[in-house]
Specification:
By secondary structure, the chain is α/β, with parallel strands linked by helices. A six-stranded mixed sheet has the order 3-2-1-4-5-6, sandwiched between helices. It is globular. It folds into two domains: 5-195, Nucleotidyltransferase, domain 5 (2-Layer Sandwich); 250-318, 3-Layer(aba) Sandwich (Rossmann fold). Helix 6 packs parallel to helix 8 and helix 7 packs across helix 8 (166-186). The protein has helices spanning 5-8, 70-73, 77-81, 86-97, 107-120, 133-139, 149-155, 166-186, 261-270, 296-304, 311-318; strands at residues 22-30, 39-48, 53-60, 101-104, 129-132, 193-195, 205-208, 217-220, 250-254, 274-276, 285-288, 308-309.
Length: 327
């Protein structure tokens, strides 16, 4: 049982020295969830080392395209027409992020959207680490019915006023993060910090929309498909939790990743793993940051009992892959 975070860390000496010195609690609203979707609004609450609010900032962003699900975020084309482009606000955004840990609810999504926007603007986001409040709530074993922001807010008595409005969502998250951070400090919990790797290249190529089920054209970030060399090692079977990956294991990926998918697959291939494009009974492991999604790969993995890990765990496993058995 964790101590009362409000009393256990009242003394400066009780605060973990290894904890970050500042945080940027971020929320972005977007035109959708795909790689070529755009940010349409962003908010940042800057917090000090103990989670106290220093200031906050909000802006709408002209996505230069259809705003997507207006019924969710409430931002219409007319409202966004006069808003600045991301390249116009990138510098101000950077001042809010610099030297801080990016905190978000499902942080991998917010980070990947931000990283892509910076890459389009031919800049680099000054973020080196991120913290997902979903992961932190799991570390704290909070008794939540699910991992929605509204559930985390309700647990700490934080009132949401405008769900899916970037500024209010960031405020709610900042107010819920403060007691979470203090509970972690009181219990000596190691914060689930993950590396943020900025994109170093980006292309917005015009491709026929028919390829994506639309008419006309749209920009895309997809790189040309590459044929990977066949894995030279036999499949040793499924990954077992707590053990090492072994060369020859068949690994599949589902959903968005913070590291560009091609780069992640390259790393897997270089480690001697077989990158699979689909799930079968022979698949050793599925890598996904959203194991509760209803994608076909996640559904099949559930049916076949395929082991599942997130991107961060997979990255750690890649660092120590067992060589294939000889003979």
């Amino acid at each position: 049982m964790l101590e009362d975070p409000m009393t256990a860390v009242s003394s400066p000496t009780a605060w973990p020295a290894a904890y970050p010195h500042g945080y940027a609690v971020v929320d972005v609203e977007t035109t959708g969830l795909a790689r070529d979707d755009r940010i349409i609004s962003a908010a940042v609450y800057r917090l000090d080392a103990r989670g106290e609010v220093e200031d906050h900032w909000y802006t709408m962003v002209n996505p230069e395209r259809d705003p997507g699900p207006v019924w969710i975020h409430g931002l219409t084309s007319d409202m966004l027409e006069g808003a600045p482009l991301f390249s116009d606000i990138a510098e101000e955004f950077s001042t809010r992020l610099e030297g801080r840990v990016l905190v978000a609810h499902n942080a991998v999504f917010d980070w990947q959207m931000i990283a892509r926007e910076y890459a389009r603007a031919e800049r680099e986001a000054p973020v080196r680490q991120r913290l997902c409040t979903i992961a932190l709530s799991k570390e704290l074993a909070l008794p939540l019915p699910n991992h929605k922001l509204e559930s985390l807010a309700a647990h700490f008595g934080v009132v949401q006023e405008r769900a899916h409005h970037a500024l209010d969502d960031a405020r709610v998250l900042a107010e819920a993060f403060r007691p979470s951070l203090r509970a972690a400090a009181a219990g000596g919990v190691r914060l689930p910090l993950h590396e943020c790797r900025p994109l170093t290249e980006w292309t917005d190529r015009a491709v026929p929309r028919q390829q994506a089920g639309y008419g006309g054209y749209r920009p895309t970030s997809w790189r040309p498909a590459r044929k990977r060399p066949a894995c030279p090692y036999p499949n040793p079977g499924r990954y077992e939790e707590g053990k090492r990956l072994k060369q020859g294991m068949r690994v599949a990926f589902s959903g968005d990743t913070s590291v560009e998918r091609d780069l992640l697959e390259d790393r897997a291939t270089e480690a001697g793993l077989h990158v699979a494009t689909s799930i079968s009974r022979l698949t050793s492991l599925l890598v996904t940051n959203d194991p509760d999604s209803g994608t076909s790969k996640v559904v099949k993995a559930r049916q076949f009992g395929t082991p599942v890990v997130d991107e961060a765990a997979f990255g750690q496993l890649l660092g120590d892959v067992e060589p294939a058995s000889e003979g």
